Amino acid sequence: MSTVYLLLLLLPLVSAQTYRWGQCPTPDVQPNFNLQQYLGRWYEIEKLPASFERGKCIEANYSVRKDGTIRVLNSQFYKEKTRLAEGTAVVQDPRDPARLAVGFSYFAPYSPYWILSTDYTTVSVVYSCTNILNIFYIEYAWILGRSRFLLPETVSYAKELLMNEGVQLYRMKATDQRMCKDD
User: Taking the model in full, what pTM does it have?
Assistant: First the structure.
């Protein structure tokens, strides 16, 4: 009975997310991933819904800190303000560097941040999934670009890759990258 109450409490939190029954899949990630080439600015082109991303002009900037962790600086324009969120990414297993873990709070556990595919210069396809009580999972997926806009065929390639990994895209939405500060 307490599990039912817990699920009822969690439902408002997941309503702005994409959740599915069962346990997280484990998609293939970018082979021979090179973190140094991945660093820098990426613009969000499309995403599955995420409660922490409601604005426009969303981007992420990755850089290495002195301690070897990766600084993640996300920004978005929301409610007439630029809002920043700084987090930390770590490579948990040097033999599998495309499977990063990202955290934005000392109090919350790290979340998976897996680079499924990237060419480092144009597009990146990222996936994240968290199991909840081994009953359902919350998943995120992002198509990122080195520029604010990607060619339609590049976006189609990224979506096909996600679908081939079993990610359902019916809730995927384009991020508004028009009229941003650097335009």
Answer: 0.88
